């Protein structure tokens, strides 16, 4: 169980409260700094387009972050 502590820490608010789906996803996929919050905007947009379907929101966020625009 101890090996899961780093993952669990990404999914909890600093004061121990649960995170919203968009914030949890951003914390899981964020690999570096995101000072202007662009990643959060992409994930929040994906969640909004998914209409409450978390699996669809995860898929849309994954596609939006993995397949960056070519331009």
CA-to-CA gap between the ends? 44 Å
Strand content: under 5%
As an assembly, this protein is: single chain
The number of strands is 0
The DSSP helix count reads 4
Description of the molecule:
- It is a single chain.
- By secondary structure, the chain is mostly helical.
- The protein is built from 4 helices and no strands.
- Helix 3 packs across helix 4.
- The termini are far apart.
- The mean pLDDT is 77.
Keyphrases for this structure?
single chain, 71 residues, mainly alpha, 4 helices, globular
Secondary structure elements and pairings:
Blueprint: H1 5-10, H2 21-29, H3 38-49, H4 54-66
Q: What is this entry, summarized?
A:
This protein is mainly alpha-helical and 71 residues long.
């Amino acid at each position: 169980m101890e090996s899961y502590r780093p993952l669990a820490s990404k999914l909890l608010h600093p004061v121990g409260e649960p995170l919203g789906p968009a914030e949890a996803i951003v914390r899981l996929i964020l690999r570096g700094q995101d000072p202007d919050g662009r990643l959060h905007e992409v994930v929040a947009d994906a969640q909004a387009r998914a209409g409450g379907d978390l699996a669809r929101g995860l898929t849309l966020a994954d596609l939006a972050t993995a397949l960056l625009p070519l331009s």
